[in-house]
Specification:
Four Helix Bundle (Hemerythrin (Met), subunit A); 8 helices; about 170 residues; mainly alpha
């Protein structure tokens, strides 16, 4: 049974999004922008605010690349969550947007991506990746880079979230 490339990518994205939701269960809002601290020892590793904020930036990028409308990225998201940003601990809860804002933007964008992927013709995915340098070398087509963003990239960061949960004493998702 033939399936479009967009459907194949969206299937993988659906699995990632289900896991992303499970990983958020039970995360206290005051721990969302904090480094994990098992036994009171701070571990400098991405925290949930950074993970979900960073991943949220890719939905608009994907939508633009496949020719669909995208939500506007809040200006402060680029500063805090870009690939060039450094995740920092936020004990005063004043550096990062609150959990609800980050998670709503993440979910909204990725719901749009899932629907858009399923309706995008295969020829769009065969077009050259507009990125330059290493990203184009690794992922030469729009389809290959979207498969990475919706699968490997997302799951890599969700693995960081899983580790954060366990360091915080939370159960597996």
């Amino acid at each position: 049974m033939p399936r479009s490339l967009g459907n194949v990518i969206a299937d993988s994205l659906g699995l990632s999004l289900g896991y992303a939701e499970r990983l958020l269960r039970g995360v206290p809002t005051d721990r969302f922008p904090r480094f994990a601290a098992p036994g009171g020892v701070i571990v400098t590793s991405n925290h949930p605010a950074f993970i979900y904020g960073h991943l949220s930036l890719y939905a608009p990028k994907i939508l633009h690349q496949i020719g669909h409308p995208a939500p506007a990225v809040p200006e402060h998201f680029e500063v805090r969550f870009s690939k060039d940003a450094t995740c920092v601990d936020d004990p005063d809860l004043d550096l990062y947007p609150p959990l609800q804002e980050v998670v709503e933007f993440f979910k909204e964008g990725h719901r749009m991506v899932s629907a858009a992927l399923r309706s995008t013709p295969d020829d769009v995915f065969q077009q050259p990746n507009p990125a330059e340098g290493r990203m184009r070398d690794l992922f030469p087509t729009i389809g290959s880079v979207q498969a990475f963003y919706c699968g490997g990239h997302m799951m890599m960061h969700l693995g960081q979230m899983s580790a954060w949960r366990r360091m915080e004493g939370m159960p597996a998702a």
